[in-house]
Amino acid sequence: MSILGELKIGDSLDEIQLEPVDRITLIKYAGASGDYNPIHTIDDEAKKAGLPGIIAHGMWTMGNLSKLFTSYLEEGFIQDYTIRFKGMVFLHDVISLKAELAEKMGNKLRFHVQAVNQKGDQVIVGDVIYHQYLD
Amino acid sequence: MFRHLIGKQSGKVKNIVERGAVKKFAEAIGDPHPIYVDEETGHKSRYQANIAPPTFPRVFDYGTIEGLDLPNKGLIHGEQTFHYERPLLVGEEILCYTVLKNYFDKLGALGEMGFLLIESYGEDSDGKIVFSSTSTVIIPEAVKKVMVG
Q1: Could you tell me which CATH class the domain B3-16+60-148 is placed in?
Q2: Which residues constitute the domain of residue A103?
Q3: What is the ipTM of this complex?
Q4: Does the beta carbon of B20 lie under 8 angstroms from any beta carbon of chain A?
Q5: Which of A35, A105, A113, A135 has its CA 20 to 30 A from that of B74?
């Protein structure tokens, strides 16, 4: 039985704290994802949009959050991943990634997942349903 | 503004889950795990191949819904979901398309905002759906006005 299967409701996966957000990280994500919306990379464009500075792609944060589960992808897979984008992520923000087991449904495990900034504000929040292989 | 396009679908576009693209993407989200990037690890795994991170479908080309002309600036991504039947395998071919599921206007913090619910799909070479995803995209009132011109 995998470690995930041994978790009890309310147990958490090991939290990950990311390095402070820097521009090159967002430029890399823009290139890798093809999302070139300039509010994520160019200060003037962010200011024109009424923002104090560039903000991370919501999908960058969502992509990062999924890595809490990557080491378990041999024993199962992420069947559902649902996220609500709640707050913006700015340069130098320090984001922490968290997952807590909320429900067990046979071989499916539902986790509450969230990314929070250094002030403790949620920036994205949602659910992951991890489907464990039975064989 | 886009209500008349509800139900419209794009044409299907052939995409490949490219090894280089997966590696670049995994690195960009700070997750270059061997199951994504190391050929031998992939080969020895239950998948007998490398797999792609769950948010990788962001990279695919889904074609365009005729008439759904969106600016690349000013839109707000509200919600995102992915549903998988199985992980995406590196090297496989996926046919992708997108459907406008819903559009409505709603009064909110940014005036009378437009809400787009866009559903996207990826099928394997047998025509089986591998994943579906939904994006909720918000068009603030100021952006809507510019789009109408």
Answers
A1: alpha beta
A2: 3-20+57-132
A3: 0.96
A4: no
A5: A113
